[in-house]
Fold this protein.
Amino acid sequence: MDLRLRSRKAESATVVEVGGEVELHSAGQLRDELVRAGASDNPCVVVDLSRVTFIDSTGLGVLVGALKSVRERGALSLVCPQRSVRRVLEITGLTQVFPIFNTLEDAVASCIKLTAPNGAASSGGADGAETGDANGATGVQTASAKSMRAPATGMGGANG
């Protein structure tokens, strides 16, 4: 449906603000914007999902692809205060891959720290995910994602 994108600089980061629905028909636009952001002079890319109302597997794939591309020379962080979008990231296990923050300020600060000359940009998303959520939500997300998977294995198929 409707996807809104805007890129801007914030300190030494490129912020890509995303709004609306990220789905099969609009994901290409987001991919193109993230490629441009990753090619900028800033090694730090922050994707602000604050105004995203829906994201499907195609959109998630675009984010993962951007992370793989950007982390070769920098870092990528997500801002995701929306409970519904964060829940999708939790269920898919992507909270273990991306550093996720509730505020843009926290995401930019962490991303810049990761890309500092003696930072840990080359370590990828897993290390950032543990330290990334300044609100301590990462541990809760991990437990929540695991508890979501556990009942599903016994509910259907030949085992259930």
Remarks:
- The CA atoms of residues 21 and 54 lie 5 Å apart.
- Residues 120-160 have pLDDT under 50 and may be disordered.
- The domain at 3-151 is CATH 3.30.750.24 (Transcription Regulator spoIIAA).
- Helices lie at 27-38, 57-70, 83-91, 104-114, 125-132, 137-153.
